[in-house]
Amino acid sequence: LIFDDRSLACLAAADRIAATIRAATDARGKAVLGLATGGTPIPVYERLVGLHEADGLSLAGVTSFNLDEYYPMSPLDPRSYRSYMHRHLFSKVDLAPNRAHLPDGTVPESALEAYGEAYDRWIAAEGGLDLQLLGLGRNGHVGFNEPDGMAVDRALDLPTRPVSLHPTTIADAAKDFGGEEHVPRRALTMGTASILAARSILVLAFGLNKAEAVARSLSGPITAEVPGSLLRSAGDRVTWLLDPEAASDL
Ligand code: GLP
């Protein structure tokens, strides 16, 4: 879907999320959301807060799992994704604090792999994700699933795990950390297995600097070198919401 501008795309995304929350809560008494950080989804969270305040949208039945967190990272650090979620959403709606999950950037090194696998089990134990919200990195990354030379069948089935950040990702995060040298080199990311199993997936990408990643994701080969292209394996469960600039190379 190509919208006239990014604010309209974000309104549409928030309305889809609100509809999912209402439908899943009505049907099963709960909704399970996969949430994303970055600059792109901030207006989506603003709209959800507005729907909560003015339109009776309750998130009391929602369980959420965020995509990623820097590693190592204290949840109390203002640059953590946990702090971001608190600022933009968790502190402003009635989502129960003990149901709002992010990967924990304080897990000891030796327990990281097991922790990632447990994170996938927690998602599965909730019945999987009703909806996963995604942004797209300039290098085509999804969450912190970075470009990689591995075979496609393996790339489609990755667990939640520790990863090394790509140089483009470190450069893009520099503004949030006061310089590239302060950006953590590693992160925990939800894997493609849990992301691709979501019952619906919304991908938001805006601006000219995402145009190449969007075109490579939607029209190039399906390859682990472009993690966004792996989303095509989820077929019509995936909706891309773009502005004209991000769609300009299609
Ligand atoms: C970050 C996040 C991704 C996000 C992407 C795009 O590094 N880990 O989940 O989608 O990069 O960020 P932005 O929306 O700020 O362009």
Write the layout of secondary structure elements.
Blueprint: H1 6-28, E1 31-35, H2 42-54, E2 62-66, E3 68-71, H3 81-88, E4 100-101, H4 112-125, E5 131-134, H5 152-155, E6 161-164, H6 167-177, E7 186-189, H7 192-196, E8 201-205, H8 211-219, E9 238-242
Parallel strand pairs: 1-2, 1-5, 2-4, 5-8, 8-9
Antiparallel strand pairs: 3-7, 6-7
The protein binds 2-amino-2-deoxy-6-O-phosphono-alpha-D-glucopyranose.
2-amino-2-deoxy-6-O-phosphono-alpha-D-glucopyranose binds at residues 36-40, 67-68, 135-137, 143-144, 169.
What report would you give on this structure?
With 250 residues, the protein is α/β, with parallel strands linked by helices. The protein has one domain (6-242): Rossmann fold, CATH 3.40.50.1360. It contains 8 helices and 9 strands. The chain has a 6-stranded parallel beta sheet with strand order 4-2-1-5-8-9, covered by helices on one side. The protein is globular, with a radius of gyration of 17 Å. The protein starts with 5 loop residues before the first helix and ends in an 8-residue tail after the last strand. It binds 2-amino-2-deoxy-6-O-phosphono-alpha-D-glucopyranose.
